[in-house]
Amino acid sequence: KMITSRMSRPVFAVVFGMMIAMMTTAFASVAVVSASVACPEPVPFLGWSTWNTFQLNVNESIVRDSADFMASSPLAAAGYKYILLDDGWTTCQKAKPDGTCLIPGKRDSQGRIVPDPVKFPSGLAALVSYVHSKGLKIGIYTAVSATTCGGYVGSLGHESTDSKFFAELGFDFVKHDTCNHDCGIHDFCLQNSTRKMSEGLRNSGREIFYYIDSGNPTSGPRVFNPRQYDVTDLEAIAKVALKVPELVWAGWGAASGANLYKSWFDRSDSWQSLIDNAHHQAANSMPLFQRMVQPSQQRCCVIHFPDMLTLGQGNLNPREERTEFFLWTILGVPMVLGADIRRLSTVQMDLVTNRDILAIAQDSDCVAGSCVHNLDATEAWIRPLNDSTFAAVLVNKDPSNYQTASLFIDGGDFWPADFGEWVGVGLKIVDVYSGRQLGVHSSTYSVSLAPHDSQLLRLIPVKL
Predict the structure, then answer these.
(1) What is the per-residue pLDDT across 312-360, written as a single tens digit (0 to 9) for each?
(2) Residue by residue, what is the 3-state secondary structure of 100-159?
(3) Rounded to an integer, what distance in angstroms lies between the CA atom of residue 137 and that of residue 140?
(4) Pairing of the two strands 82-84 and 46-49
(5) Residue 239: pLDDT band by 50, 70, 90 thresholds?
(6) Disulfide: which of 71, 159, 189, 304 matches 134 by Cβ 3.0-4.6 Å?
(7) How far is 150 from 269, CA to CA, in rounded Å?
(8) Helix (H) or strand (E) holding 463
(9) What are phi and psi of 311, to 5 degrees?
């Protein structure tokens, strides 16, 4: 859990020393063999996924229309380029009204997955070519199990065939989901399946971005529960980690060759989900874990993902949408929109295409930001950037009242780079979203924030 109050440096040093000792012992026996990782995107990418809005009810028209809109809108001009087709694209013999597949389709005579000819009458190859013709890239979805989360055909036992098929069709991105109980982590099925898919993609002759989604409300690689407390359902039994190497963020996700991996619940369109995923992301991208198990380090082309953005879907208010976008910016992760991009408001479009914000989001160091203090009603996050400046986000967590959020420049928020102790050095502060200059500060910067609002700052060290 995150620290909930400011901690003095002597106390911090003792606690941190104890943590290092415990974690060194815990990880001493961990041996992770890291696959070579291709690097299709040198910085966190920008894109859109079909899942949040359309879920299993995807079709060719939705993908084409969204590609048309992205290419002709401010999104493409700002750098958005990925159209990600999620679950529900394969044949299904019997489905529920919501699209859930009860009896999956069959593979063809060559063992390949068959796209649904009703949903995709032109075929996937034609769809890929169409998206590419717009100057965009396109992704596809599969799962480690025999069936996907939605019950459609999965890739278990067919990783080589499917990776080759995806490459031949021209896809630029593959999402590998981890649903169902027929492929777990204790017998290395899940680890081996992802490794095989990664190797197949890497040897396909195409540069393909590989994403492992190992965190869902129904799958448990995200949890460390060595005694299986309250673990009863089959999927949890197969996937709840019993030892450290079975945690995706402790090594096997990155070691599989993934460019992106997720280890927490799928996002819902709510404030609590936003905060929970941001904090879990930060906790499991900590330098502590980066040192103990090297493959878990967030770096360009190996990024820990807090899931897609939900702004524009209707449940977050404009202040909460800003906070979501600012926190994802400070975490240094891909910005994947989940709302119907064709229906974004002018305010939402201006937010997600703000060049100054995206410059921070796509900083070339790809460093994950940290929550430097988490008080009852406010919190502060800081991220070092490639040009020796910093980005920071101040957040008001109070749902009803204005609160004053502060950045303690001389009080530990930047420790060990404590500018307040450097004679003649301060921070020039800029409000990134509005562009307002907020002056030079060397002690404390404070701002009054509306309920669930936030402020994204650029911090530039200067001589006083």
Answers:
(1) 999 999 999 999 999 999 999 999 999 999 999 999 999 999 999 999 9
(2) CEEEECCCCCCCCCCECCCCCCCCHHHHHHHHHHCCCEEEEEEECCCECCCCCECCCCCH
(3) 11
(4) parallel
(5) confident
(6) 71
(7) 20
(8) strand 454-463
(9) -60, 140
